[in-house]
Amino acid sequence: QQAPKRDATIGIVTLQMRAPYFVAMxxxxxxxxxxxxxxxxxxxxxxxAAKVSSDIEDLLARGVDGLIMNISPLExxxxxMAAIKKAGKPVVLVNxxxxxxxxxxxxxxxxxxxxxxxxxxxxxxMGGKGVLMMMRGGPEDNSTGNAxxxxxxxxxxxxxxxxxMAPEFGKWTEDGGIRVMEDMLAKHKQxxxxxxxxxxxxxxxxxxxxxxxxxxEISVVGFDGQKSAIEQIVMGTNYIGSGQxxxxxxxxxxxxRMAALLAGQKVEKDTITPVVVITKENAASLLDPNSPF
Amino acid sequence: xxxxxxxxxxxxxxxxxxxxxxxxxxxxxHALRGVTIAFRAGEIHxxxxxxxxxxxxxxxxxxxxxxxxAGHIQVDGAAHELRTPLDGQRxxxxxxxxxxxxxxxxxxxxxxxxxxLPRAPRTGWIDWRAAHGLAAALFGQLGxxxxxxxxxxxxxxxxxxxxxxxxxxxxxxxxxxxxxEPTATLAHQDIERLFAxxxxxxxxxxxxxxxSHHLDEIFExxxxxxxxxxxxxxxxxxxxxxxxxGLIRMMVGRAIEDLFPQRAPPAPGHRLSVHGLARTxxxxxxxxxxxxxxxxxxxxxxxxxxSEIARCIFGADLATAGTITWRDKPFAARSPKQALGxxxxxxxxxxxxxxxxxxxxxRDNASLASMAAISRWGVLRKNLQRGRVEEQVRRLxxxxxxxxxxxxxxxxxxxxxxxxxxxxxxxAKLxxxxEPTRGVDIAAKRDIYDVIGRLADSGIAVLLISxxxxxxxxxxxxxxxxxxGRLVGRFGRAEASEERLLASASGLH
Amino acid sequence: xxxxxxxxxxxxxxxxxxxxSARTLGIELTWRELIPVLCFFLxxxxxxxxxxxxxxxxxxxxxxxxxxxxxxxxxGMLIVILTGGIDLSVxxxxxxxGVLFAGVADRLGIPAxxxxxxxxxxxxxxxxxxxxxxxxxxxxxxxLATMGIIRGVVFIYTESPLSPRHESFRDLGAALVGxxxxxxxxxxxxxxxxxxxxxxxxxxxATVAIGGNVEAVRLAGVNVPRTITIAYGLSGxxxxxxxxxxxxxxxxxxxxxxxxxxxxxxxxxxxxxxVLGGGSGSVLGTLFxxxxxxxxxxxxxxxxxxxxxxxxxxxxxxxxxxxxxxxGRKS
Amino acid sequence: xxxxxxxxxxxxxxxxxxxxSARTLGIELTWRELIPVLCFFLxxxxxxxxxxxxxxxxxxxxxxxxxxxxxxxxxGMLIVILTGGIDLSVxxxxxxxGVLFAGVADRLGIPAxxxxxxxxxxxxxxxxxxxxxxxxxxxxxxxLATMGIIRGVVFIYTESPLSPRHESFRDLGAALVGxxxxxxxxxxxxxxxxxxxxxxxxxxxATVAIGGNVEAVRLAGVNVPRTITIAYGLSGxxxxxxxxxxxxxxxxxxxxxxxxxxxxxxxxxxxxxxVLGGGSGSVLGTLFxxxxxxxxxxxxxxxxxxxxxxxxxxxxxxxxxxxxxxxGRKS
Lengths: 293, 509, 331, 331
Ligand SMILES: Nc1ncnc2c1ncn2[C@@H]1O[C@H](COP(=O)(O)OP(=O)(O)OP(=O)(O)O)[C@@H](O)[C@H]1O
Ligand SMILES: Nc1ncnc2c1ncn2[C@@H]1O[C@H](COP(=O)(O)OP(=O)(O)OP(=O)(O)O)[C@@H](O)[C@H]1O
Ligand SMILES: [Mg+2]
Ligand SMILES: [Mg+2]
Known about the structure:
heterotetramer, A: alpha/beta, six-stranded parallel sheet, six-stranded mixed sheet, 10 helices, 44% helix, B: alpha/beta, Rossmann fold, 2 domains, 32% helix, disordered N terminus, binds adenosine-5'-triphosphate, binds magnesium ion
């Protein structure tokens, strides 16, 4: 291939634009792309794997030079990936790695490893006893959430900590989080820590706990490192930790990889961003007031 | 599937259908009280009675549309339990309903042959060519060969739809044919054609049950007549052994004389003047006046354009040419709301289609057009509303006189009275009445005529559109006749007669 | 709940049934309303038998707070359904009301924020109603389209969640007035008002009548487009109010709030006896539909029903509920 | 399509135009069908003017593959809409068909997998139809409930996505037959068959008639519950088929596939002139509705319309389309 085209067009494929994390990722990718002089086009899959597949086809038909895709929590997408390969365009995955590996580069966190780190924070906080409640985002086939939960579980298993799984999904949102938490609080007299698979649900759960006047006895731990969550951690509330999954860090490396690929260079296939577990100690330094997320 | 004419059985007078001791209640209403009645092959058997007497209920019981609480139905001497209309149909009992049972989005052919469309012998696929042929033949035998069987049924006029209903009922040779007020929407000539066909059917051995409020038709057509009152059988007798006055006495329990009220001469006042009014495709160049205290009758055959004129004056449809003056000012309503604001009210002819809100009470329906008058700051004054509606219920003898009753549970005639009550409550200065007594019994008609007469005497202008000749003749100060969208005749009260109106309406001067 | 259960003690006996009903029928209506009530008590009994946690003050408090949003949305939906329409855009309007409430609160204070939210929601509804009634388009498709349009507008207004710092921001949704939440009181007030509107005002009666026979209503001199427009306006208003209360309760306004809320609202109306296509439905019935759905969700969490069985159970309970309502109607 | 365009006699009076139509009208119908076609060509022209990429072989190929799933689902939805019903469970049935197709493929091969998927979908539809027609419940609420139930069943079948290794697994959705994809051929065959069903078979005619006046059909001796059940069965069958093709195209079967697909399907029918509540709608119109929606999505990607504006534009175009169809109908 030739030298890097400064006016290259990059297609950004996102599974959805409804959740703040995905919006933040798209904006970060656009900003990083602009810095390097790329044009960007965004296709929003509306949460539907089939629409994502159509989006990829459309962007290829439009003649983009490369694709950056954030299609978490989809696990693999053999059909569309084959189409990209056939079109001979480079593809960089961000956030979510696809099994099957026909991509050129992947940048993301290791949800399980960070989950383990978060689990350590929880285990330390609980001191080997008490009740840990876990709230899932859902649906059942969301492996991102499953990896995070497994990571946490690996550190609390075989300790004196009792596990309590919320039966209903929090649907990754504040309102889902508050609803599930309210019902759990009504039923369970003792809960010491609540782990939610993302910060949005956790922020909702925190409200429910406050409404039930049990802030003193229940701490919450989330995932993602959403701005509002970091603020809570900095303030020293009962929000005691989160796992970092920073869209800006991932996007920066992702676009870097794309630029290199367009320039015909070889790049590292899988890049795991540094494992950062956010606690009161490091929260202040990780808080970026201008971040959209 | 064979057309009605195919078989040729004789008039043997055998009893084919018997209702024995049939009892039916709807909640608190005792609709049929131990009715026993027998119908013979080759005979036209009329059923008459006041509104709510139980005529339609009896037909429903005979066809299986409703079950009975007591008693039973015998067909050919064997007792049958009819649970659904299909049970009745399988036994050859077919019915032309008082209301529409057509599928508007299908062709005439398909409506007539619904459920037994002809199929191609080998493939089993519908054979449309054969179907259209079959339907056309059916209408030929009925006496309406001109009806285009490929038309969409929804585009037909009320009269044409009625004919399709009849064709549907006879598309399978019926052993018993029930006609519930089939002539309510038919014009004079069409009634003649229908009668001719019914007689032919009878001659081939069909038992015909015929329900009508037009007593003249009963004497013209039926051999025997049964009178129902309050759900009970008053008697069955040959038509030759009675007369109109006798039937009325049996129906109502008393004689009805002076059907039409005595009236004071019209007084000068506001008036409606219509000049050169037209609506493309419906009527053209229509000019007439209606003055305060005057009842102007408008006669014409079905489809002559009378209803369209009324709708244009009322703003329900828009005229394409012409001017209207009302109370000395030019007036062109663009909506019914505007017309009502100017004191013009229209009772439409289709009570189920655009008259009543089924599912709502008599109270709500009767006050629908006068809500502004009975509300303060948009809030209804319930006591005032109740008082006004109850007064109308008494005046028009609506039965049952319970204003909270759902109108869907009323008999056809009583529904019509509720619609009339709605318009009487508007305090309109010009009242346009399109077929106001359709389906109403003779006693109630008299009450309604009385009300209309008194309204006119109090200075209200009335335009009375009707296909009921005696009604037009009896009520009107002047009569206008429409034919094919044109105003073709004007008669004073003295010079009008049945013959002259008919001749004018059908173009046989 | 208790106060509003018997509001019409003063009125004549015939009227007391109908104060909350959208129809003024006799026996039929009473049945329709009774059956959902029975279902409801059945559910309560099941609840009480299977879990101690249900009849605790805390849980009942939760429940009463959880149903507020769906309660308000369903009420607006009912009014629209009575006209023979449907409003799929409610979820997007919830988000619209929510983000405006949060967006304006810090700058202009809570009352102004609430006013902004409700005004915007009403406007959105009025636009729905205008398009539907003036151009005589099918409500389903129009509100499906505006559902997308309004959602787009919400995301253009803010693509990330807003969390205002105003100290009394959470009062509307979370503050208690005596034993119940402010939100619940607002909701009950809206139910009373809607019932009054539908039964005692000229426009309300016209709204109900339109669903029965629109042509008859038009010929009776009622301004049908205006009436329909008002119905959608009310739906928008109530949805935006629901959004504001919800966001106040959450303390954060997500632009993605309210997705698929229309389904629960329609379900509540139908469980309460409403007929899609118009002509039937009651305010009291809808209230019980809302409670029924709320209790199903709450109960499944208390009983610890696993997440994907929850959808299954909820679906089955809904079918059962409408089956009971339909049986009741027939008898 | 050509041969059957002009049969000697059809359901519709004097016309061969109506082969694809579900109504037997005259002129009115032609208009209704013509307007969507015009919209469609308008869109095409806009497409061609604004972007070179549209009329490329590759893009047209993409488009023709993208519309297959919605095309099949919409066809089933049309049949249900013609009876006056609605089927909200299609999205869940898509998932059901998809996971079964993927789940069975490796063990028993592609034909068995397809059979399993289609059978399960048909069964789901028949259950919908049975509940609706036997108990006379409102289709909206019943299929809303079964939407949850079927989704629950799908998740019980598999919690995580399935990606079969069978070598010809991707043929159904991706293989080309001449210039077009296998999926498209299957879809077109289904359209032909449906049009034949609706116009030339007794059950098909009864289906159309039920939406016009169910009581009349009952009185004519037609088994109405059976006819309605068949309609929902067909909808389930076509949705499951769509699921299988979709999964084959993607190469992976997600149990969460198909969420909110019902909305696009209903939109396609209505854009194509169908009236919710029954009595109107045509196969040809629906096909064009499907194309219109497909092109809107495709075009917005090609033109690079920003994401939140996409929802806005799509909503506006849908309103415009139904407005045009409605205008056409009036004239
Ligand atoms: N579905 C129903 N529910 C309750 N009452 C009913 C119902 N149908 C009829 N009725 C009542 O039964 C009685 C008989 O009604 P029916 O329709 O048989 O009268 P009819 O003789 O046909 O009158 P009309 O001449 O007005 O058509 C009336 O009092 C009517 O109110
Ligand atoms: N539903 C309809 N659809 C189409 N054309 C109709 C319809 N009803 C009536 N027409 C036509 O409109 C014209 C005027 O009919 P209109 O109803 O005004 O006549 P009318 O004298 O009042 O007769 P009727 O007794 O049937 O009401 C006629 O040519 C008639 O065939
Ligand atoms: Mg009758
Ligand atoms: Mg007329």
